[in-house]
Backbone:
């Protein structure tokens, strides 16, 4: 009976490379504007490799970096840690096993893999997607690349100055119209002690995607209103955002 019980537990436990199944309604892709993230707390420049390595060339090459791809619910009771919560630092979590080409792509779109963010994002969010690790991160990279093609150049062009959200939305309409109504812009005031930096900065760009009912993978872009947002503007005064520069 003991062995039979152990076999049942083994059969129910998520196997390597697979996520636990979880009910959710859509995916939310969260993309960071790295200089604003690093500026929020000067200590991050010392602690995080992603901030120490940030420079103008890196920012222009990938203005929007992958924070995470999150299975979300419309009732906002979002699933998390579906394979069991693991506490401790990010780099204490199990390493992610990926094909070489996916690993290279992920390193480009998520510089914070140097700080083991990929491990944490898998444990907290990817484990709820029902996808294999490789499929989850390949989809994450593909979507990040897509949004950068549509919006990255416009953000990089305004590095060190303000840009109107209307200008950013016009870039979306021009380069990838399906994304225009799926994108929201999040501005935050950084916690830096430097008074010159105390201005609302574009911190994240977030994009909703439908869940493909056949595969469970991300599908078509979703209008932000369909996932409960009233506006594409989250915290950007007057519809304008400052794009921080890694040179400042």
Residues:
């Amino acid at each position: 009976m003991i062995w039979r019980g152990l076999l049942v537990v083994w059969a129910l436990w998520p196997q390597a490379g697979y996520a636990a199944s979880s009910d959710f309604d859509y995916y939310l892709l969260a993309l960071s504007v790295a200089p604003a993230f690093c500026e929020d707390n000067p200590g991050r420049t010392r602690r995080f490799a992603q901030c120490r390595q940030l420079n103008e060339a890196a920012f222009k090459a990938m203005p929007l970096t992958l924070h995470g791809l999150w299975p979300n619910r419309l009732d906002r009771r979002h699933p998390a840690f579906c394979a069991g919560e693991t506490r401790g630092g990010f780099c204490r979590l199990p390493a992610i096993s990926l094909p070489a080409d996916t690993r290279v792509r992920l390193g480009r779109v998520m510089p914070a893999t140097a700080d083991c963010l990929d491990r944490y994002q898998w444990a907290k969010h990817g484990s709820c997607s029902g996808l294999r690790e490789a499929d989850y991160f390949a989809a994450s990279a593909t979507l990040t690349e897509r949004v950068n093609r549509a919006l990255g150049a416009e953000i990089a062009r305004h590095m060190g100055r303000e840009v109107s959200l209307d200008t950013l939305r016009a870039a979306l309409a021009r380069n990838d119209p399906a994304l225009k109504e799926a994108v929201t812009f999040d501005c935050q005031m950084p916690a830096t002690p430097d008074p010159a930096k105390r201005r609302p900065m574009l911190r994240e760009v977030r994009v909703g995607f439908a869940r493909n009912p056949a595969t469970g993978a991300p599908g078509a872009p979703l209008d932000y209103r369909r996932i409960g947002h009233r506006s594409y503007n989250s915290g950007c005064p007057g519809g304008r955002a400052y794009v921080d520069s890694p040179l400042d």
Q: What stands out?
A: DSSP finds nine helices and eight strands in the chain. Residues 225 and 231 are 7 Å apart (CA to CA). Residues 18-243 form a domain with the Ribonuclease Rh; Chain A fold (CATH 3.90.730.10).
